[in-house]
């Protein structure tokens, strides 16, 4: 198996008034990537940030891997903006697009990696057809829209089913991940761990990042 732990703090839980410094801090403490949550107030009942913030982060953090999670109703519309802004990965929701395969092609053509996400209520069968072509599959472990929610162990069978079929796939989990829930997610087969509140609110952020990584890498 070639997968390894990727620890991706979600900047939704960072200090937006001091964003570049807070984001740099978690990278300096060992985070692999930065997870950037984009919400349009339509696909989810909340708004967050858009491509201009990604552009600013790119300026301040030229080498950071910016993993953008688009919780938007029209994901095709924003591909070029995010590519121009310096995004490295563009994950869209399978529920939001009629032709995910074509959208993956468009994201790749724009020079980004492509991810496909599913909400907790969407069957894993909806994303399995794209697991070979996409660079990652995101299994949401909370209803998208807000940080700080409780991890849903009930979606772990979806992670298990994916890992069984795709031993080398990057399987991302997002929502409620921390030192209390990582064992469940890693045992199911998740290796790309989004962690917002558990990292940014920690008194020892480094210990949380290292703790998450240790539990995931112990599985491989
Ligand atoms: O996509 C998201 C919410 O829709 C966030 O990435 C997620 O909630 C991370 O925050 P936390 O770790 O605090 O749950
Ligand atoms: Fe997210």
Q: How would you spell out the order of helices and strands?
A: EHEHEHEHEEHEHEHH
CATH architecture: Alpha-Beta Barrel
Helix content bin = 25-40%
Strands ordered across the widest β-sheet:
1-8-7-6-5-4-3-2
Low-confidence stretches: none
* Secondary-structure content class: alpha/beta
**Which molecules other than protein and nucleic acid are bound?**
ribulose-5-phosphate, fe (ii) ion
Instruction: Report the span from N to C terminus.
Output: 7 Å
Tally of strands: 8
Largest sheet: 8 strands, parallel
CATH superfamily: Aldolase class I
Query: What is the top-level CATH class?
Result: Alpha Beta
> What's the number of domains?
1
Supply database-style keywords.
single chain; 220 residues; alpha/beta; TIM Barrel; 8-stranded parallel β-sheet; 8 strands; globular; binds ribulose-5-phosphate; binds fe (ii) ion; RibuloseP-bd_barrel
Helix-strand blueprint:
Layout: E1 6-9, H1 19-28, E2 34-39, H2 51-60, E3 66-71, H3 79-85, E4 89-93, H4 100-109, E5 113-118, E6 136-140, H5 156-165, E7 171-174, H6 182-188, E8 192-195, H7 197-200, H8 205-217
Helix pairs in contact: 2-3, 5-6
This protein binds ribulose-5-phosphate and fe (ii) ion.
Residues 10, 35, 37, 69, 174, 194 line the site of fe (ii) ion.
EC number: 5.1.3.1
Protein name: Ribulose-phosphate 3-epimerase
GO biological process, one term: pentose-phosphate shunt
């Amino acid at each position: 198996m070639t997968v390894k732990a990727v620890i991706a703090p979600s900047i939704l839980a960072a200090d937006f008034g001091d964003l570049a410094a807070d984001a740099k801090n978690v990278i300096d403490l060992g985070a692999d990537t930065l997870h950037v949550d984009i919400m349009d107030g339509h696909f989810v009942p909340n708004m967050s940030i858009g491509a201009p913030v990604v552009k600013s982060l790119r300026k301040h953090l030229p080498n950071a891997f910016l993993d953008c999670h688009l919780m938007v109703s029209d994901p095709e519309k924003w591909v070029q903006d995010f590519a121009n802004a310096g995004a490295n990965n563009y994950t869209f929701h399978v529920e939001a697009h009629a032709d995910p395969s074509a959208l993956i092609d468009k994201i790749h053509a724009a020079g980004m990696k492509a991810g496909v996400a599913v909400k907790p209520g969407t069957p894993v069968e909806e994303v399995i057809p794209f697991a070979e072509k996409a660079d990652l599959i995101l299994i949401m472990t909370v209803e998208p829209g807000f940080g700080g929610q409780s991890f849903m162990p009930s979606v772990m069978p979806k992670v298990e089913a994916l890992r069984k079929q795709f031993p080398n796939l990057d399987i991302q989990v997002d929502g409620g991940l921390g030192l209390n829930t990582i064992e469940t997610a890693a045992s199911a087969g998740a290796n790309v761990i989004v962690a917002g509140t558990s990292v940014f609110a920690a008194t020892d952020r480094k210990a949380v990042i290292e703790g998450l990584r240790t539990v995931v890498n112990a599985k491989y």
